[in-house]
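RECORD TYPE: protein structure
NAME: Phosphosulfolactate synthase
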Amino acid sequence: MNFLDMPKRTIGNRTFGLTSIADFGVPVGQLRCILDDYHSYIDVAKLGVGSAYVTPNFDEKIKLYKQYGIKVYCGGTLFEKCYYQGKLDEYRKFLQKHGVEWIEVSNGTLDIPLETRFDLVNELKADFSVLGEVGSKDQTQELSARSWVLEMNSLLEAGCKYVITEGRDSGTAGIYNPNGEVKKSIIKELTKQVDINRVIFEAPTSKQQMYFINAFGPNVNLGNVKMQDALLLEAERVGLRSETFFMEPDSNPARL
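PREDICTED:
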């Protein structure tokens, strides 16, 4: 019985309000138990870093995610490894063979020019739903707010379904300072010039997740969420944690 007034969440096959978890090697049996209880809170699953290439029972894992209606893709590091070795055609065949329908185009480790990524998205979108990631894993590499906006809008224009803000699984790069604090000037510009419903903010820590929930409301897209935090994040989204306690039922702040 539901009796509390809480912020309204998108449900079912969401197009925004997404929770994208990071799978860094959870065994299939454990994954089955997690999804049995919490699949309704999970929309997307990333097989983190390049782990998909060495994952035991890979096909079984992909099938399990799909069974629960969860979109699955391989981390951008695997894409970049294949790009670096000139093996993108083999990578495409690998994904198609295993029934992976989403692909990430990133430049977190390599410096792949935006024009090249634009062309790759145009090419890949015929066979995959494409995610474009912006930002570097290298903390010494700084993109201006203008460059963040330009890259995100260019990748969306090229055909990406969503764009992802790099944050690493540690939450210390890309849109974050090395201490994990959000680079608010960048977020402010994205708010003004990019369709936020098509941006997935990597936010691996609760503090970072609650920053975006309080800034954009319960239906902000969040990524790199630890699998074991899926339930906790849903509670945060609907005002069941102290830091989001006072969110109104029709809350959609976007007050940056």
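COMMENT: The longest strand covers residues 129-134.
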